[in-house]
């Protein structure tokens, strides 16, 4: 019986690449999206083209009720969830003092509470089957802190603390929890950055290239595999060696 993975924010960017990479290794995929239904359906078609089982599920990860309903639906469709990748995220550039309370709460709600909502909903099933893998997608800014992305950095730093603590709590149940911390990756999320900003970042990357979604997907694939069976509570930085 193939494993089942839920990838949040799998309609675009890094999440889409993770979904495809895990599908290629024979894992059934639950594709979560919030607003990009057309793109989510494209991912579904690509996975079906690989002769792999998949389905799409709409839910805003920051909404506990929507998440709970989605998890019940996935468990009923696939039987269980072995892997949850908390990838859904949003970013916003601007001064901390200019950020509205609503935008601040949304940033924390999607990037941090979203991962907590998903993890809380999948854990009873994982504890029941005595195994599971949770991967949280943080950011180099969660490790280092970024000016003009203060709340984003705080949410991503929170994910690192969440990873380390949850790994200790659920390790005895056979569940591993790890974090992947991407550097600068070529997705829609960075489309707001000017060419000059991207050049400035590139100059700080020893491997001399911007990362691809596949770079992150390969790290996730490793962490959920048996090759990483003794790794939990860790942060794997996938950033080309960027000096932060
Ligand atoms: P992206 O291209 O903007 O894609 C974001 C994804 O998250 C989309 O699939 C989007 O789905 C989904 N999403 C957003 N809000 C959601 C919500 N409330 N509920 C469910 N899904 C939601 O971004 P990306 O670059 O692939 O980023 C993926 C993750 O990597 C994020 O957590 C991001 O913070 C992190 N990261 C990215 C970089 C980078 O340089 N790109 C660096 C470090 C960390 P819909 O369009 O369907 O709403």
Explain what this protein looks like in three dimensions.
Helix 4 (101-129) links the parallel strand 4 (83-86) and strand 5. The protein has a 7-stranded parallel beta sheet with strand order 3-2-1-4-5-6-7, sandwiched between helices. The protein has 244 residues and is of the alpha/beta class. 47% of the residues lie in helices and 15% in strands. The protein is globular. It has one domain (4-234): Rossmann fold, CATH 3.40.50. 43% of the residues are buried. It is built from 8 helices and 7 strands. It binds NADP nicotinamide-adenine-dinucleotide phosphate (NAP). NADP nicotinamide-adenine-dinucleotide phosphate (NAP) is lined by residues 8-9, 11-15, 32-36, 60-62, 87-91, 110, 137, 139, 182, 184-185, 187-190. Residues 8-9, 11-15, 32-36, 60-62, 87-91, 110, 137, 139, 182, 184-185, 187-190 line the site of NADP nicotinamide-adenine-dinucleotide phosphate (NAP).
